[in-house]
Design brief:
With about 200 residues, the chain is α/β, with parallel strands linked by helices. It has helices spanning about 20-30, 45-60, 70-80, 90-95, 100-120, 140-160, 175, 190-195; strands at about 5-10, 30-35, 65, 85-90, 120-130, 160-165, 170. A seven-stranded mixed sheet has the order 3-2-4-5-1-6-7, sandwiched between helices.
């Protein structure tokens, strides 16, 4: 008997432990884990290579690693109900596609979200939180931050579980948070007065 499909989003700042938590969830799934790496190896960057190696050393040898810098939707189409896809990370995937214009990017995101909805497998996505600091000084930095922020929000709205990992601690946002789409804004004066008096 296979486990029901689950869609899980794990987000957090750099070095927070988000990848470790995602790896823990994948290991606990009891499914065959396919680690989908969106990062592209750059031999001329030893620090980046070291980061990738640290991730590789943490993972069980039974896991299959597949480099997928762009075609995430294609991987989801071939996954089965007995698979757990651990996609790490959305931020790198967004960076790999920054050259797409807004219209093509929206089509890419819509296709990704649709495949996330239709997939038979359990999918765990890791995303970086980049919007907690200063506004980037350059247009490309602002584009990256905005696209990643919108993407994680869109995926979070359809995910079964959403976790925020920060300072080595895990928060379950589906249990603790209030979805913005469930909020209503008072538009008449009586509602505004009632809100102000509370």
């Amino acid at each position: 008997m296979t486990a029901p499909q689950r869609l899980i989003l794990v987000t957090g700042p750099a070095r927070s432990g988000k990848s470790e938590w995602a790896e823990h969830l994948a290991a606990q799934s009891g499914l065959s884990v396919l680690y989908v790496a969106t990062a592209q190896v750059d031999p001329s960057d030893p620090e980046w290579t070291d980061r990738i190696q640290q991730h590789q050393q943490r993972r069980p040898t039974s896991w299959i690693t597949q480099p997928v810098p762009i075609a995430l939707s294609a991987v989801m189409q071939t996954a089965e109900a007995t698979d757990c896809l651990l996609i790490d990370s959305l931020g790198t995937w967004v960076a790999n596609l920054l050259e797409q214009d807004d219209q093509v990017w929206e089509q890419t995101v819509s296709e990704l979200v649709e495949h996330l909805r239709q997939s038979l497998s359990t999918i765990i996505l890791v995303a970086e939180e980049t919007g907690w600091g200063v506004v980037p000084a350059y247009p490309i930095g602002r584009l990256f931050r905005d696209r990643l922020g919108h993407l994680t929000r869109r995926i979070g709205s359809i995910a079964d579980e959403v976790y925020l990992v920060t300072a080595g601690y895990v928060l379950n946002l589906k249990q603790l948070g209030v979805p913005l789409q469930n909020l209503t804004i008072a538009t008449d004066s009586s509602n505004l007065e009632n809100s102000a008096s509370q």
